[in-house]
What does this fold into?
Amino acid sequence: MDYSDSYNKFFNKLKRDNKQKGNVFSTAVGGDYEEMGYIQMQLLRQAGLSENDHVVDVGCGTGRLAYQLAEAKHAQYTGFDVVGEFLKFAKMKCQHSGYRFKRISGTSIPLPDQSANYICFFSVFTHLLHEDSFKYLLSAKDVLKVGGKIIFSFLTYDEDEHWVLFDQMVDNKESTHHNQFVTNHQLEIWAEKLDFQVELLETGSTPFIPLGKPIKLQNGATFDRLGSLGQGVCIYSKT
It folds into this structure.
């Protein structure tokens, strides 16, 4: 399935509805542009990221992870998204010679086999049909180097805090942006079918990402030594 149309419509509506135009590119990815990008970067570092690793960011949005990596002088990054205006903003924020931003359609990552060390899907599988998420993982397996890692966030029925969101979807009579849920066991089955090792499976309710500085989010939440994305996190490794 091609999700380009729905995401572009979502962003166009957001622009019309958002009175503070300067913040629309942060709002489009859930707010906390610098803060969440920093936590994502710290998660990659926890997973073993080194400065010369090639990071591929599928669903890069407006470049919050890319911005943090560029500030940290990380060498190589490729970001993909379906919204052209997101990519233009990301390029403006991350003017780094080793960084590329490209449009993507479908569920295949257009990069050579074994060319990436880390492939990220932050808040991507949370909005896709399961079969499309699995197709992305199949493509990522080809693009990933041996020893490389796939990192993605997810919403799970196994987490009470995520179930609250599902309840809201059930009660909402209007059409909203779709949220997709998984079970923890489902992610273990996917790893087995793909011949990946599950390196990490955190449901997200308890902060677990080591931080180098305190973080305060727009909703008032604060993180001191450990942070969270507000979603579950799974890391697969390719052996």
